[in-house]
Amino acid sequence: MYLPAHASDVYYSVVAARKLFGAFLTEEWVSFGHSQGGGAVWKLAESQYVRNNTSYLGTVAVAPATFAASQIFDSFLDTVTGGSNGTASGMATGVGFLPLLPTAVQRIIPSYNESILAPTLRKRVTMVENAQICLEGVLGLTLDLNRSQIASMEGALRDRPTLLKWQNMSAPAQGDASPAPILVIQGQQDTAVRWKTTVDAWERACAAGNEVHLRLFPTQGHRPSLSAGAPEWLAWLDQRFDKKAAATAASGAGKAPVKKKCTKFTREPLNIEYVRAPTDVDLKPYLGPLSNSM
């Protein structure tokens, strides 16, 4: 269960840092993550580690990995139905991660017998496993393949219940409570994380009573959203520490903060002509395929 494990790692890294550098650190702390790290800190925000920790002030999750299996199914559905994730390329989002999925599932559900991969991709995955190719190489396996060479539709339907079972063992935004606010930054030109999947996670977390603030950036991709959203998330983090300091000064230390309503805003550029918005096109390992196969 990769996100719960990562959440534990994040928490205990804070514990370790305090043992080594405690004299230089504030008592208050926040968590921050991008991509898989974004999913990890979101999971941490809803975990028992911080549930009663009044020093924990909140989380920033940028382009977070949430519903990994659902994203792949929905991305393929986007291409089949003629819809898209809203990216300029119209390509399927995050499908480059599919080669990693069967192994991840089998490590948690050993009885899982993969049938979602098409023969062409399965041969490549076998080659990669034998050669112990690095992550970047694995993420590039699908770049020159069309949909029929990547996945078996019949196999996908057969595997779907098991893949969703694995996903639900790990994903955030499934009803667990977060004691502090979460800020989510998501680019709508992201080719690694389907932005509609992030919106779905935001809706689920809010429905569970959590305070989650979603900011969408229409012109930004997976990595660029980290920089484009920086003015927002840096100011938000400053505000979290300022509010804690003010509450402490007013003898409110130790009291549970009052949760506010969720918010969702799209950050439209003032003048698109002058916006620097590098796409994910040059980030080839993270591209979904299918750009010239339909």
From TrEMBL:
Classification via InterPro entries: AB_hydrolase_fold (IPR029058), Lipase_secreted (IPR005152)
Molecular functions (GO terms): triacylglycerol lipase activity
SUPFAM superfamilies recorded: alpha/beta-Hydrolases
Signal sequence extent: none
GO biological process: lipid catabolic process
Entry superkingdom: Eukaryota
Stored PANTHER family: LIPASE 5, PTHR34853
Protein name, as recorded: AB hydrolase-1 domain-containing protein
Provenance organism: Aspergillus arachidicola
Lineage, uppermost ranks: Eukaryota, Fungi, Dikarya, Ascomycota, Pezizomycotina
